[in-house]
Amino acid sequence: TAFLHPENGGYRLRWLTPAVEVDLCGHATLASAHVLWEDGHIPADAEARFHTRSGLLTCRRNGGWIEMNFPAKLGEPAEAPPQLKEALGAELLYVGRNQFDYLVEVADEATLRSLNPNHYLLRQLPVRGVIVTARGSEYDFVSRFFAPGSGIDEDPVTGSAHSALAPFWSKRLGKTEMIGFQASARGGVVK
Fold first, then answer.
1. What are phi and psi of 121, to 5 degrees?
2. Tens digit of each residue's pLDDT (9 = 90 or more) over 70-92
3. Nearest Cα to 164, choosing from 124, 78, 90, 104?
């Protein structure tokens, strides 16, 4: 859920899951910008500016897309907690961690899509969530995001997770523009 009110030439934006307030949320930011444009609170060609717990975030329309300027959430290689492999039920090729989440690479897209994680074990990890990713077949990369500790077993499409995924895959693929697919039950494309 997003909460907005005018502030300092833009809008104060706060995000809440059913369980907690979060520091960064992509889909609620995108939805907030869309509503502000559609309802005429800001001109359709103006930048949407949001003051958040993660700093100033901006959104612009670009054709049929909304471009969001989010901070990169770089991760460092990390030792996997003992229950992480058990919780995911897959071999972990890479484990990293940033200020919010664990970032885990698995062998391939089929492995990622077939994950049936143990949410009880994931809930015990001292992070917001676990981003799982693999190289894609149709897309540059695929991902899923599990955050039972934040009240969401699996998020359908997670803009904030892509703040970690974009730099991770940019380095591996040698690209600065990529298309990813979040392979939840609903799914969604992030460019």
1. -70, -40
2. 888 888 999 999 899 999 999 99
3. 104
